[in-house]
Specification:
Length: 221
């Protein structure tokens, strides 16, 4: 999947021209995102690929069906491992790429990972640096990748369109955190742990004293 994402993103920007208005497109019954009117759609090997040339950048959306034997994630930390593995894989494929500004965010009820890959080939090819903004959304059944690819020189000009694209990602309200990982438990806070475990010996003492008192009363009776 990662190799597909990388190859799809290596697009020359000579074709960028007329302004494109982004319009909502249903990726499936659960996810919607706004794309340029000229977008193309391709189905291949369990992946659905949407691509389109916007005013300031090139947009790719990838919907990849997870393997049938894919094991459900147990905890939130397992989801973060998936995010980190994905970002590391993208960076390793790019010889001169570096990850910038990685952060977690939420889309609807789900957790997502946002990061930018900066690719600078100026030393070898003389090309201007390119930026690739990734938004990764993982569920147990499907992984969604949203990408906006643009020259670094257009950063300020692309800002509004990038924000429009990023904020247009919508997920169905019935998608919950347990569609990403099984346990929603966050664990007990430190004060609660202290209260429970610190009070445990006292509870045991009270129980023992009560049992002895009942035995003594029974013997006296």
């Amino acid at each position: 999947m990662k190799k597909t994402i990388l190859s799809l993103s290596l697009i020359l920007f000579a074709t960028l021209g007329f302004s494109q208005i982004l319009k909502p497109v249903k990726i499936d019954s659960l996810v919607t995102v706004s794309l340029p009117a000229n977008y193309t759609k391709k189905d291949t090997l369990g992946q659905r690929i949407y691509q389109g040339t916007a005013s300031m950048g090139f947009i790719t959306v990838l919907r990849a069906q997870n393997a049938a034997n894919n094991k459900p994630l147990n905890k939130e930390k397992d989801l973060k491992k998936v995010f980190n593995t994905f970002a590391d894989g993208i960076q390793k494929q790019s010889r001169n790429g570096s990850i910038m500004n990685p952060r977690d965010t939420t889309i609807g009820n789900l957790e997502a990972r946002v990061f930018t890959l900066r690719v600078d080939n100026s030393g070898s090819t003389g090309e201007a640096a390119q930026l690739r903004k990734f938004i990764l959304l993982y569920t147990q059944d499907v992984t969604y990748t949203f990408e906006y690819y643009y020259p670094e020189a257009r950063t300020e000009l692309a800002k509004a369109e990038l924000n429009q694209f990023s904020s247009s990602i919508k997920v169905a309200p019935d998608l919950k955190r347990n569609d990403q990982y099984i346990s929603n438990a966050k664990g007990l806070s430190t004060p609660v742990k202290v209260g429970l475990y610190g009070g445990l010996p006292l509870i045991i003492i009270i129980v023992l004293v009560t049992i002895r008192r009942k035995k003594r009363l029974a013997a006296e009776g």
